[in-house]
Amino acid sequence: MNPIVLVARREITVRGRTKGYRYGLLVTAVLVAVLAMLPKLFGGPDDHAIGLAGARADRLQAALSAQAAQDADRSIKVTRYADEAAARAAVAAGDVEAAIVDNTSVISKTVLGTGLSVLLDTAHRMVTTEQNLASAGLDPAKVAQAQQVPVMSRVTLNGSGEDATVRMVIALTIVVVLFMLLLQICTWVAMGVVEEKGSRIVEILLTLVRPWQLLAGKVIGLGVLGLSQLVVIAAVGLAAAQISGAVPHLPDGTYGVVAGVVVWFLLGYAFYAAMFAAIASLVSRQEELSGVLSPATMLMTASYLVGFFVGQSPDSTLARVLSIVPPFSSMLMPVRSTVVRVPVWETALAMGLMVAAVAAVLYAGGRVYQRAVLRTGTRVRWSEVLRRHS
Question: In angstroms, rounded to a whole number, what is the distance separating the alpha carbons of residues 94 and 86?
Fold first, then answer.
């Protein structure tokens, strides 16, 4: 194990000391904190200035005030005007966002936003309903009292509605973070392999360590850097969301989900890193790297895209199957377990299959790496490597 540790330490030291990694980690932490605080920063009170003119202005003002009283984040300022002409002038001058005239028409400069439009339509319906009831000889107050029905209590198996929303946001965040980190760190592995092969440094290194030790040390060293990024993102994101009040209460089991994400990240990273390293060992120039990595990148991208579907429909048959099948499980199972309660046997099966897949890819990738990494010049064909392997 000593050669592996030495190689891993070398990778951590060389890559960790670069300005790109340090500044990238700092920028990532800042961006995560800002994104976590955005809902709070842009979720301030809604202040609306409304103009009223003509008949039933008193009742409209009362209806608007009643709606504002039900929403602590909403503020409504009402201004009365003598007639439609004055209301039009106020809207044109920007004194009010919109004006209701005679409870029959709304005047505005441009198309109103959905929130304000619903607010005005609700006030209009309330006032018109009261007028129609009075015309029919019914007491609007008694009718309103009869319509006051207690809201049904809502019980969901996966937590409250608010928890479900938070879980969905966390799940989608997990998809994005896992994809970005896996792609970034595995690309580092591939670039390191090609760089060492192209500069022939690998020939010197292999006089001191065995090929599988060099590959294992490289994967472990860069994996430690990737894990540190994941921990920073998770810690900063959760802390910023709670400090800012954007997510005042985390759903039960959130920290367990985060711990599970770390485990699945390590399994997914081991799988893809060995694959990327083996594929990268077939070429000697960085210009050829993107072409040979396309199949592995497409496989990872497919898992990423399916992750959004799993977040929306975690109990569907396709989601349950793909969250167990490797390598999709490394990205889909943490997403699914965030949204719903996954049976223990499914998690255990998915993890067992993923561990077996990682072992197989590490073995096969190590053999390919061993046979191709010393062959410089032209691109090594898969048929040549597999023929020698057989």
Answer: 12
